[in-house]
Amino acid sequence: GQQVMQIPQYQHVQEGEDFTTYCNSSTTLSNIQWYKQRPGGHPVFLIQLVKSGEVKKQKRLTFQFGEAKKNSSLHITATQTTDVGTYFCAGNTGTASKLTFGTGTRLQVTL
Amino acid sequence: DAMVIQNPRYQVTQFGKPVTLSCSQTLNHNVMYWYQQKSSQAPKLLFHYYDKDFNNEADTPDNFQSRRPNTSFCFLDIRSPGLGDAAMYLCATAATRTVTDTQYFGPGTRLTVL
Lengths: 111, 114
Prior knowledge:
The complex is a heterodimer of chains A (111) and B (114). Chain A has strands at residues 4-7, 10-14, 19-25, 31-37, 44-49, 55-58, 61-65, 71-76, 85-92, 100-101, 105-110. Chain A has 111 residues and is mostly beta strands. Chain B is mostly beta strands and 114 residues long. Chain B is built from no helices and eleven strands. In chain B, a hairpin with a 5-residue loop joins β7 (64-67) and β8 (73-78).
C-alpha cells in the first residue's frame, strides 16, 4: 500500500533558526496537504498543493511540491515558539479522497 | 464557532466494555471520516461515510463499527475494546470526496482502556 514518510522525525531548534521537514511518498500523489497538530490538539489544515513543482508561501512558511509529485517540503523561516507542534503531510492518490498521512515531524522551539 | 464537535473529549472504558464515540458537524458536509491516532503516530483512516454510503478500510478490525443516522451526526462504536485500542479518535468532515477538498478535524476523543 501507499506509504508516506517524513524526515526528520524530530527537530529541536532555537527560536530564530530555520526548519525544514521533507515528505516522500512511495506513489505519485494527486495532491498534498499539510497539517499542524499542536501538543494535545487535533490536526489543523495549513495548505494544499496540487500542481507539479508548485510553491506556496504563508508568511514564514514555504511549501513545495516536487516535479514528480512524489515529494514535498515545508520550510519555516525564523522559527518562533508558536511554531511548536507536529507537522504532517498527507496525500491523495488517484481520484480517491482518502488521505494517507505522513509519519510526521515534531518540532520543538526553545528560546 | 465549533464546526466539528466530538463528545466526549475523554472516555475511559474497561477492557471488553462497548463504547460509543460521537461526532457532529454544523458544516452540512457530505463526507465524515473517522481516524485513529495512537501516541506519536500519524492519524490512520478507519472508515468514512459519503452521505449514507459506508466505506470501510480493508485493514480496519471488525471490532470497529460506525453509524450515521443523519447528515450531522456520526458515531464510532467499539464493540469490545482492547488495550491496543487506546488512542485519540478523530472525526473529520469534507464537503465532497473530491481529492482537493479540505478535511476539517474535530478536537478528538481520547480513549483510555483499563
